[in-house]
Structure formats: structure tokens, C-alpha cells
Write a structure and sequence with these properties.
alpha+beta; 5-stranded antiparallel sheet; 3 helices; 11 strands; 21% helix; 38% strand
Length: 196
């Protein structure tokens, strides 16, 4: 009896086998990467001291204010499967009302890892803040009915010479309300005059 030789697999056969394995792997990887969405940032102002409508805002003998805001910064990174999201070191929080800065403070550095949510508390404060009478009256009225809202900005300075600051802009954050969404911006400082 003659020995039977195994048929040789041509290059075409190898290509078909590789395609059967690689195409599903590439599709799965693409779905994994492209289905990930970036982090969602939000802030909440859980409380404020030094803005009592009767004692602080409408009292004739108080020309300046010294408010203190309790701010919570939140990173919801649950939709991102590939990277962490952070509020970096030396970050600051600023609280304003009607374009008037009411307080500023620092935010601790923290990160939300892939598919995680993290938040940190911060305090923004102002001392001897001059708020125009019309804004004081408006804020007092809004606080009296529980509808006062402020604008909050969280800034993380650039960590390299040619990088931009990361700024979270959070508008109409209700005092004592839940988290308000923020928009993420990168701000690049213009080059100094005479630099080349």
C-alpha cells in the first residue's frame, strides 16, 4: 500500500484562517475603544455661610460680605473603559454671582479610574467682598425662596510649558441643590510679548 500524503495548505488557506481570527478581534477592540465615552464632570454647592438674606445681604451696616461655599467636585468616569480622569494638583475653585467673584479656594487632587466615579469636597471663600446693591438685593430674594444659583469654575493649571489649563465651567449651580453639569475647556495662555 502506498502512503497517502497530507494535502498541503496553501497560503490562501492560512490567510482565510487568519482573517477568521483577526476580523472578530479587531471588531471587538474597536467596539471597546469607540464605545467608551469621556468623563462627565459636575459640581454641587451644598451650603453657604455668610450670605444670610437678613443679616448679611440687606443689612445697611454691612458694606462687604465674607461668604464661604461648600463645593463638591464630581468626576463620573463610568462610561470610559480606557483611561482615568483627574482634577490635577494645584487646582482652584471660584464661585461667582452676576460676574462678581464671591469666593475662591483650592481643590484637592483626585482621579476617577476607568468605570469609576469619584468626588471631593472643597471650600471657596471670600473676605470683604463688595457686591453691588442690585446684586445683593437680587441674591437675597433668590436665597429667600431657595432659588439662588451661582457660577462655578474649577481650574487645573497646565503641567507643561506648551500645555493649556483645564477649566471646568459650571453655570447656574443651585445653592443647596444637586450636581450641575460642567463643560470642559482647555485654555492656552498667549505667548509672552517678545518671546519667539
Amino acid at each position: 500500500m502506498a502512503e497517502q500524503e497530507a494535502p498541503e495548505c496553501s497560503a490562501c488557506c492560512y490567510l482565510i484562517c487568519a482573517a477568521i481570527v483577526l476580523i472578530p478581534a479587531i471588531v471587538c477592540l474597536s467596539v471597546f475603544v469607540f464605545a467608551s465615552k469621556g468623563p462627565a464632570y459636575s459640581v454641587a454647592v451644598s451650603g453657604v455661610a455668610g450670605l444670610d438674606p437678613a443679616a448679611d445681604l440687606t443689612a445697611a451696616g454691612r458694606p462687604t460680605l465674607s461668604p464661604v461655599f461648600n463645593v463638591t467636585v464630581r468626576i463620573d468616569n463610568a462610561r470610559d473603559r480606557t483611561s482615568s480622569a483627574c482634577v490635577g494638583r494645584l487646582s482652584t475653585v471660584a464661585v461667582s454671582y452676576g460676574d462678581a467673584l464671591l469666593g475662591k479656594g483650592s481643590v484637592p487632587e483626585f482621579c476617577a479610574k476607568e468605570r469609576k466615579v469619584q468626588e471631593r469636597g472643597a471650600r471657596a471663600w471670600g473676605q470683604d467682598v463688595v457686591l453691588p446693591r442690585f446684586l445683593r438685593d437680587q441674591l437675597a430674594g433668590e436665597l429667600a425662596v431657595g432659588e439662588a444659583a451661582v457660577d462655578v469654575k474649577v481650574t487645573t493649571p497646565a503641567d507643561c510649558h506648551h500645555c493649556g489649563d483645564t477649566v471646568l465651567i459650571c453655570n447656574n449651580v443651585k445653592i443647596g441643590g444637586g450636581p450641575s453639569p460642567c463643560k470642559l475647556h482647555s485654555v492656552y495662555a498667549p505667548p509672552a510679548a517678545g518671546s519667539g
